[in-house]
């Protein structure tokens, strides 16, 4: 569903992502794990075309996205939930979701959105800023899903969210995969969370992929070693 080959990203003269390659198939959840500053956000922003990058190959569902602007990548099936959620605090929940439609071909919020997030339906008239952290994360995911993506990127969705709510986010991501059969790529530092959702875990360190395992074969102690300072 998504194939990236030899991706390099730089800030000016400083190269931060050093030629990484990966792919993920339909209905797969891939977790990219690493400590702060290892390049997760840079990777996701480059995949969305927010940051310039170089690569040998970048495709979504077989369609070339290399060099494309963000809106073109969204049309071709990529969606992004940024770190920190970036919802609009003074807009209502419904208005926040509708902003996701601006880059979509459709004008209507898909029917399954409120089925996936009943709490957002109940709160659709409330201001986004009045929602809890977990609810704001659900709102950010809902906003990304209205474009009916083939590949959903989520940058550290558990950041700043309390442990009991982290479980709800895991549940919702598993539900999304079941309902939509999409590819989910998530960047994370919380191993217990990725073990609930991911089929495969890759560790990123200083802009290189240094370790990869299927969930069933994960050596938790080893990954925790990579994630601790
Ligand atoms: N605008 C920028 N200009 C220059 N260097 C940057 C910029 N943004 C990030 N970097 C550097 O790029 C590297 C990767 O940062 P990035 O934010 O992608 O990491 P991250 O794994 O997402 O970490 P975090 O979890 O803290 O967001 C770091 O060394 C960082 O200092």
Automatic annotation (TrEMBL):
Keyword Isomerase annotated? no
One GO BP on record is: L-amino acid transport
**Xref: InterPro entries:** AAA+_ATPase, ABC_transporter-like_ATP-bd, ABC_transptr_urea_ATP-bd_UrtE, BCAA_Transport_ATP-bd_LivF, P-loop_NTPase
Q: Which domain of life is it from?
A: Bacteria
Domain ABC transporter, residue spans:
2-229
**SUPFAM superfamilies assigned to the protein according to its UniProt record, in alphabetical order:** P-loop containing nucleoside triphosphate hydrolases
Molecular functions per Gene Ontology: ATP binding; ATP hydrolysis activity; branched-chain amino acid transmembrane transporter activity
User: What does the UniProt keyword field contain?
Assistant: Amino-acid transport, ATP-binding, Cell membrane, Membrane, Nucleotide-binding, Transport
Entry annotated with the keyword Cell inner membrane: no
NCBIfam families recorded: urea_trans_UrtE (TIGR03410)
Q: Which family does it belong to?
A: Belongs to the ABC transporter superfamily.
Protein name from the UniProt record: Amino acid/amide ABC transporter ATP-binding protein 2, HAAT family
